Amino acid sequence: MPGAPDPTSIALELDEARAGLKHAGVQMHDRMRQLDELWAKAKPADRLLAVQRMVQSGALPKALNDEIEAKNELVRELLGRVRHDRKKSEANPTDHDLRHRVFLLELSCQRAEQERDELIDNNDLRGPLYFCGETFVRSDPFGPGETALKDLATRIQFLQTRVEELEKLDRRGVRFTAVQPDGRELTLIRMLPALTMSGEGASLRSEPPQSPSLDDFEADDPTISDKK
């Protein structure tokens, strides 16, 4: 039967899980900021489809879902009228009244979009919106090491759970320090794969972690290794 988990292995795996969680959190923050910029530049029809996908996901409370859907349908209706009248205006360039009507319709459509997006922001739904509709506002495919926002969120949830599990295990007596030339002791800071690998290559180790060499580091007082 396997013995009790090695405190050193637990401590090092916890450090790596925390580093992976921090790295994924930075990726999430950067991706959300990128999507905010892409959302502003996206075509109204693409934004319409992204909101529609969120509405169809069924993840929102019914009353809020119905309110967002109604505002999105108003945007759809106005977009259709704008396209129809714009074609007529292009076929009749001397009809100034028609051109003016198209202009007013475009303003109404922009106002309807703004009201819909304000409702989304007031309910803090940018996350669910991008989880469901990220592909509608991206013009470029995912690059090397990139993954969909919803998959990144799943990874963060997994790492958070793993950190919480490891923090409950016994890590007493695991601390390693290095003696500097001036005599001060420096707590060992490992270069973890999660901090050195790009993109989603960072993950929890699949092999047992290697303990630091005792030739380079000395065991310190019985304390917790993850002291920040």
Explain what this protein looks like in three dimensions.
The protein is mainly α and 228 residues long. It has one domain (9-171). 62% of the residues lie in helices and 4% in strands. The protein contains seven helices and three strands; from the N terminus they run ααααααββαβ. A three-stranded antiparallel sheet has the order 2-1-3, with no helix packed on it. Strand 1 (176-179) and strand 2 form a beta hairpin. The longest helix has 35 residues, at 7-41. The protein is elongated and about 85 Å long.
The Rg value, from CA coordinates, equals 27 Å
Span from first to last CA? 35 Å
Oligomer status: single chain
Kindly state the mean pLDDT as a whole number? 78
* Approximate helicity band: 55-70%
The number of helical runs is 7
SSE run: HHHHHHEEHE
User: Tally of extended strands?
Assistant: 3
Low-confidence blocks of residues: 189-228
Label the overall shape. Answer: elongated
Strand order of the largest sheet: 2-1-3
Biggest sheet layout? 3 strands, antiparallel
Total tally of structural domains:
1
Q: Give the amount of beta strand, in percent.
A: under 5%
Structural class: mainly alpha
